[in-house]
Amino acid sequence: MHPLDDIKPRWERRKDARPQELLAAALDLFVERGFASTRLEDVAKRAGVSKGTLYLYFTNKEELFKAVVRDNIVPVIGAAEEIIAGFDGHSADLLRKVIIEWWQMMGESEASGISKLIMAEAGNFPDIACFYQDEVITRGTNMIASMLNRAVARGEFRPMDVTTVTQVLIAPMMMLMTWKHSVGPCEKSQLDPIAFLDAFLDMALHGLLLPPAPPA
Amino acid sequence: MHPLDDIKPRWERRKDARPQELLAAALDLFVERGFASTRLEDVAKRAGVSKGTLYLYFTNKEELFKAVVRDNIVPVIGAAEEIIAGFDGHSADLLRKVIIEWWQMMGESEASGISKLIMAEAGNFPDIACFYQDEVITRGTNMIASMLNRAVARGEFRPMDVTTVTQVLIAPMMMLMTWKHSVGPCEKSQLDPIAFLDAFLDMALHGLLLPPAPPA
Amino acid sequence: MHPLDDIKPRWERRKDARPQELLAAALDLFVERGFASTRLEDVAKRAGVSKGTLYLYFTNKEELFKAVVRDNIVPVIGAAEEIIAGFDGHSADLLRKVIIEWWQMMGESEASGISKLIMAEAGNFPDIACFYQDEVITRGTNMIASMLNRAVARGEFRPMDVTTVTQVLIAPMMMLMTWKHSVGPCEKSQLDPIAFLDAFLDMALHGLLLPPAPPA
Amino acid sequence: MHPLDDIKPRWERRKDARPQELLAAALDLFVERGFASTRLEDVAKRAGVSKGTLYLYFTNKEELFKAVVRDNIVPVIGAAEEIIAGFDGHSADLLRKVIIEWWQMMGESEASGISKLIMAEAGNFPDIACFYQDEVITRGTNMIASMLNRAVARGEFRPMDVTTVTQVLIAPMMMLMTWKHSVGPCEKSQLDPIAFLDAFLDMALHGLLLPPAPPA
DNA sequence: TATGAATGAGCTTTCATTCAT
DNA sequence: GATGAATGAAAGCTCATTCAT
């Protein structure tokens, strides 16, 4: 296709872009202030539109919130799943890679705010919490579990209760996200995420790795 | 002091009790609905007083919230510290005991709601978040760190970077509290806290324990 | 009871009076502007209170509207029924009296606005319309019908289809109320209610009266 | 003019049709929901055009409303007047015919909704009310009055106060229209328009007819 | 002409806070 | 101290109206 074929009048391009601009603005404010304290007028203003425009794209505040969650969760999950699919080395390296890259993608971006958001607002939006459970926790859990099964099958990790170990491996990631958006900003709070994850991985691998067969 | 000196007419004792009744009611509702969605009228009603009375004891909603947090954090910390002080066995047993009992006291009681509350509202109350950091996280961290130092000193755990390992040991506890008050109530969410903690402790101790010195 | 026993502090008396003050204000404005065009702030202002106060007594605009209707309909019906109960003369005089007094009580007061209100808003409040049908139309119809039955029983009116004649007798009353609140205020509109009712009654009685028995 | 001169390309003919389609849609919705509750977007949608198009033909909502009223009133009046002009029998039959046919044309069609509309919204549109008074009530009144004068002149009805009797004859028609669009739809509401009009006419003619001259 | 995205004034409703009693 | 009626700012949401295309 000729590159110019895609050019649309500025005005119409905006129409297509609007929902994304609004979702981006809403993500920022929801993460920063929480659901209740975010005023829709501020979301609109940050997106450069008026209050009424927001309602052309989202039925109400709750639907906007849900859209923000959905819009930011799906890509994160997909990305993480791809990392695993294409890996072909030792499972210990894979685990390290997945967890460290997860933090770089999710934790260091604003996406981590989504998780914190869900933790915080779950009580007021049970369906969102369950949606998150299904779409993120379950898929993420399956992803980690598949790594562990692979490792055991390849004789790289000891046999184990995969389900529970999976939950154990997820814990530090949840902690990092929660920490980042709560006490993290406090002066006295001192936590180096990468060092923390390294230490955790060292400890975990120590317990998971099958010791090399002793020389005969 | 003569025991009867402490006796006051009932209505005066009630005066002292009022704030506690209000704090208890507020704790329940804040945990259940979050800060913004909790109406002071409901707090007052649950405490059996009128809305106006609430303002005799707390300047405004924000101060009530802070009082709730402070009131519920202090005892939790103290209780955890006492567990350690009086223990005299192997450090591995101590670690197990502290973590399991912590969950039974904190996690299974409403006190865990306080932590969730702080995570959720930290953005709106930075000073509360820092207060929590100072009074809970730091003290809790010191507590765990002292256990680790004791263990290393007694030749029970390997030498280690105590600060980071401490943070690693805290992670599953934070995860449990967050989980309990967010996706925990979802149908599909399946997590047995005790089994989870056991698995974590197994893995951790595996990495921490100094292998017994080989016979010469 | 001693007359002074009833005296309450001004402030508390107001509390009891509030709903009535609000209903009166709402009646005025609803009749004048219709349901949708009436702003609750104006209702409150006319009652001398703030917007919020209104919500202490009525759940929302719709409930206020329903309360206005109920509050103004019941007494009207009762009053009309009493007129009949205590009458003891010729049925023709009773019919005249009931209809003329009805206009003086209902039509010339603001209560007639209620009927107009219901006609106007019936589409938006089907339950109100039915409530009106049950409480006013049906009761009013029964009232008129009982007069006609009495008249026939006493040999004063000819035998007739009471149900339909009743509806015929109601028509001019409905017309007057509708007229008063619609085209009545126009310059060119010329209708003298009493003359109109007189003419109608003359015509009706002409058709209803049993001619005196011819001398044998 | 040559018959083909009138042929226009379809799109241009549509241009003329637009206002009619819009007026028809607006009539439906105004009658169904009242002025305030009718959204212009719905009117446009029902007419199959966009919201903006509506504003090409009508300055604003109020003007659309007025156009709807005017557009639907004129033909009604004209039709009723024609009935009389061409009649040549007894005045009693004429009166019956006019009133019954009026209900069949006006009452049973959507046109009756216009009258109800005016009754309901008169307060917000005094000029509409007066327009209705002038164009409908006055003309209708004159029409009925002319029938009565004809009847008296022909010695068919007694001499009477034509003005007031006219108003009396109009009452049941107003009642029927009001009833149809307010409490009519209620379950309990039972009114057979034709039976009602028949009963009214019987009663009225009883009072109006000149008794046949006694045989000499 | 026709469109429909965008606007923003305006309204209902909520609730933290005040204060006369 | 205790009450609860009253307040009014604030926020969500609607919809008549405009205007660039």
UniProtKB/TrEMBL annotation, chains A, B, C, D:
InterPro entries: Homeodomain-like_sf, HTH-type_TetR-like_transc_reg, HTH_TetR, Tet_transcr_reg_TetR-rel_C_sf, TetR_C. Residues 16-76 form the HTH tetR-type domain. Keywords: DNA-binding, Transcription, Transcription regulation. The keyword Signal does not apply. Residues 39-58 bind DNA. One of its GO terms (molecular function) is DNA-binding transcription factor activity. It comes from the Bacteria. Signal peptide: none annotated. This is TetR family transcriptional regulator.
